[in-house]
Amino acid sequence: MIFLGLISCEKKLTFDSEITDSKLVVNSMFSNSEPWKVNISNSLSVIDGADLSTIDNAEVKIFNGNSLVETLIHDENGNYLGSSIPSENETYRIEVSAPTFKPVQGFSSSPPVSLELLSMDTTTTDDNFSSNLFMAIDITMKDLDPKDNYYGIRVSSVMLDTITGETQTEEAYLYSDDPIITTSFGGGAGLTVFDDLLFNGSTQNLSLNVNIYGGGNYDEFGNFIEGLQGRRTIKFELITLSQDGYLYFKSYGSYQESQYDPFSQPVQVYSNIDGGFGIFAGASSNITEIIIE
Amino acid sequence: MKQSLLLLLLLGSIMVQAQTHTISGYLSDESSGEQLIGATIYESTTKSGTSTNAYGFYSITLHQDSVKLRLSYTGYQSKSIQFYLDKDTTLNISFTSANELDEVVISAKLQEKIQENSQMSEIDIPMQKVKSLPMLLGERDVLKTIQLLPGVQSGSEGGSGLYVRGGGPDQNLILLDGVPIYNASHLFGFFSVFNGDAINSVKLIKGGFPARYGGRLSSVIDLRMKEGNNKKLKGEGGIGLISSRITLDGPINDKTSFLVAARRTYIDILAQPFIRMANNNNSNDKAGGGYYFYDFNAKLNHQFSDRSRMYLSGYFGNDKFYSYYDGSSTYNGQVNSYEEKAGLKWGNAITALRWNYLITPKLFSNVTLSYSNYLFNVFNDFSNSETGPQGDFEHKESIRYFSGIQDYTAKVDFDYAPKPNHLIKVGTGVTNHTFKPGITSYKSSSLTNETDTAFGSSNIGANEGFLYVEDDFKISSRLKINYGLHASAFAVNKKIYSSIQPRISGRFLVTENTSIKASYAEMAQYLHLLTNTSIGLPTDLWLPPTERIKPQFSSQLAIGVATTLKDQYQVSLEGYYKEMKNLIEYKEGASFFNQTTDWQDKIEVGKGWSYGAEFLFEKKQGKTTGWIGYTLSWSDRQFENISFGEKFPYTYDRRHDIGIAVTHKISERTDIGMVWVYGTGNAVTLGLERYGSFSTSGQLGDDFYYQEDIEHIDQRNNYRMPAYHRLDLSINRHKTTKWGERTWSFGVYNAYSRLNPFYLYFKEEYRGEGQIEKGLYQLSIFPIIPSFSYNFKF
User: Fold this and answer.
1) Over the stretch B166-204, which tens digit does the pLDDT of each residue have?
2) ipTM computed for the complex
3) Which candidate in B699, B703, B756 is best for mutational testing of the A interface (most A CBs within 10 A)?
4) How far apart are CA B447 and CA B384, in angstroms?
5) CA distance, residue B690 to nearest chain A CA (Å)
6) What is the DSSP annotation of B399-446?
7) I want to staple B29 with a disulfide (CB 3.0 to 4.6 A). Which of B34, B224, B554, B792 is the partner?
């Protein structure tokens, strides 16, 4: 090893990848519970040291078949908002164009809710020192659709800051060793995803462990935080995902898990944006709220 | 249907009887008594021929008539014998080595004509070539010589891994005296485990596998150890830059001979002064480490009678990489002592007991009992003790990780030559496997508590059996085929897998010197190797098929043409197409280091394809000998959950591969060697673009407060490393002395110091004022490396 260390040498290569053009990146998960919202940003070559940036001058159009649903209006930070609400079971197309970029498009539909939450039991443990919260959640759910379906679970803690009047949301760290869970530590972007392969059309129990770090009146180091209300609401979301959404969050979850392990296998993150990157996916969610004093 | 047709052909073709007699016996080296494997026996009137088997035995049945036999073996003086055959005759013939003749060059015609053999995709590697070609650090290496042949890829820089016709490293059946070796490399793959001085013959088969071989998809590498000189005590050895070796063989009595060969590196010993200097910190603490490998071959053979011989052979080798720290400190009268040892250790142990018995001159039998064990072990032992006025305290911890595979095998083989145009081989065998797919044990003890636990996958027992029959059938003077069936079964837990694999290969002589060859072979492999594509460590796991994971299967079709030019040049051109099923790969994101997950949950099962063309121009005789090989190939993989189910290139998908190996004898005392290799760069996976991730917090009603960069990979193995090429040169100076012969070998590996890629990575460099420049870099591990060694024979 010493010998190899002494004789080995490093050489900079000409990066002969053909990627020189920046591409449009579309990120949107739409549902029938809120108006359209899409974020547009750009991609860069992996050797480009510049920061990624949002695109504020794009034209973002939503189509249903060949009919234009609406053109979204830029709000801020690359977020484009619409006024209409997507309908269930409709397939939508998004077309995005911007100066100096090649136009991109993507397709997806908003699936109806096909997973019913039959029961939920929670056991909560407080960490008195840091106000971290640990919950064991056991749920019973029923798959209502005999087709292949895809689901996600997200848990977050919402608290009211009594000084500013704003709510503060803490995303929970969720994990489970249940065989139906696709990724061992949840999916990408805080969404734990699974399919109904093992319980298609039937009832299924699922046990989850949830850690909510910080929040409460103390931060994770035990320092008292002025103004936060002691009471918090735990939002439990059971989301029915389109297949595109499932593939994206499943692969992104694996990517997050493995990206700093030099011995892990590389992960390709799914994208359904032709000509660019990102995800355009439909979803429907059931939200159950638990109040903790 | 294919199997039934082959069986009918086999039975029908041997029914016809005629007045025949059998000539049988052993062919051996005159000076050592060593049996000659693959020597040819050719009867020129009937144009019938055969060759000696792995024990130097031959049997040829001819019609009663005058016979003209020509017996030959590469590198030896041929012999011709003429007599009237009117009864079964035993002919044991000794050959004189070309080296012992006065002529520098043997001018005899080429003995083994490539176009005559019904087998295709088969190459015999002369051990003399292995010894005279230049090699990394001067270490003679059989497997690295095989890497120079067409259809064989070398894997990563310096490694001795073999990737044959798009197959993986687990798909090579590497046999040492008929016993499989699971990990054939030392020093993380830089050297093979085979000591060239102890090896008698090496044969590589890449396709058209005869029915007697089974259990792997892509190749058979059949190595046979020397049996030991039965005339007088001989020795051979060498002192090299990193290792030394010694081989002794000789007679124990007129019926028994032996061979022992040993090799050990001394990097650890040479490095000790430097390690001591590095740790010279004026304390009494001791720290150090090192690496070594050793291997030991032994063989004993005994001749009970002309009809009965027994061989006992063994190989034992180990690699060990270790470090240690031993120290103490004192604080307020409290003495704290600590000791830590850590390292990796891996190795093979194999033994084989074989008994040859000549039942009749036409029927040769061999019974083999063998044992093979490969074990990989990671260890870390730590102890800490305190004594003094504040009390005594002791704490010990030990973590160990084991993986490996262990086999016990019993088999019997028969060679039967019933008629002039048939040579039938039949055999059966059973193997008991114990797979050890990775167990971590943890022990700790202190004054207050004690822990002793183990986790990981438990050992898996399995049994494998096989039965084969094959016939080398000369249908006419132009048409000859080798056909047969290999049936096998594998039982693991409550699951039984079985397969019947048809094999056929043949040649049609278009002219006296040119033949067209074709072959088809189906293979089954009841074994998987779970390997991490980013590193090449002995951590790779040997795993069995299970209820969930099926065995690997392949089918390979090959067609080619072979010709001999001017009696000394052999040229072959072969095209092949191979399909492989039930290959395994780690899942995306899976890591070897996650030992809490069962291995079956970390893998994907898929398929592979490989196709291409191979050209080999070979010169076996004269002052200048060697070969030029070229391979044009494609190799792809497809897994349902890797690359979203799209087909992607295999890591060692190498479009162009060239290997040139030449030696030239300048004089009796001097010969030179040259190797040049070129290969298309390996396929690796790199993220080429990056973009911002989706944030659920932003999308479901909140702000986009966090996005993470995703490096986009458009496909597994989407980027090509730069091409690999290298020139090696060597010169050997021989001198005959009073006691024997000595040879000084000087070599240069990578003579023009090509910086070949070993590993690619992105690196950020800060250019000041917040400027970051990111670039793609390669690590090259072997620039020009000179070497020398001193070799001797007595």
Assistant:
1) 998 889 999 999 899 888 888 767 788 888 888 988 999
2) 0.89
3) B699
4) 12
5) 5
6) EEEEEEEEEEEEEEEEEEEEETTEEEEEEEEEEEEEEEEEEEEEEEEE
7) B34
Structure tokens at B480: 């000859």
Residue of B552, B550, B599, B559 lying closest to B167 (CA atoms): B552
Q: β-strands B89-90, B20-29: how paired?
A: parallel
Q: Which residues of chain A have a CB within 8 Å of the CB of B321?
A: 1
pLDDT band at A263 (very low <50, low <70, confident <90, very high): confident
User: By C-alpha distance, which of A131, A93, A129 is closest to A109?
Assistant: A93
Q: How many CB atoms lie within 10 A of CB A162?
A: 12
Q: CA dist B523 to B124, B173, B215, B221, B412, Å?
A: 22, 12, 7, 15, 20
Task: Quote the radius of gyration of chain B (alpha carbons, Å).
Answer: 29
- Rounded to whole angstroms, the Cα distance separating B641 from B619 reads 47
Interface test with B, best of A43, A46, A167, A273 (most B CBs within 10 A): A46
DSSP track, B625-650: EEEEEEEEEEEEEEETTSGGG--EE-
Contact A79 B704 (CB under 8 A): yes
Provide the shortest C-alpha distance from residue A134 to chain B (in Å). Answer: 21
Q: Which of B123, B270, B128 lies closest to B205 in space, CA to CA?
A: B123
Evaluate whether B570 touches B601 at the Cβ level (below 8 Å). Answer: no
Residues with Cβ within 8 Å of residue B766, at least 6 apart in sequence: B772, B773
- In angstroms, the separation between the Cα of residue A42 and the nearest Cα of chain B is 7
Instruction: Report d(CA A221, CA A212) in Å as an integer.
Output: 14
Instruction: Give whichever of A251-260, B529-538, B567-576 has the largest mean pLDDT.
Output: B567-576
The C-alpha atoms of residue A228 and residue B22 are separated, in whole angstroms, by 101
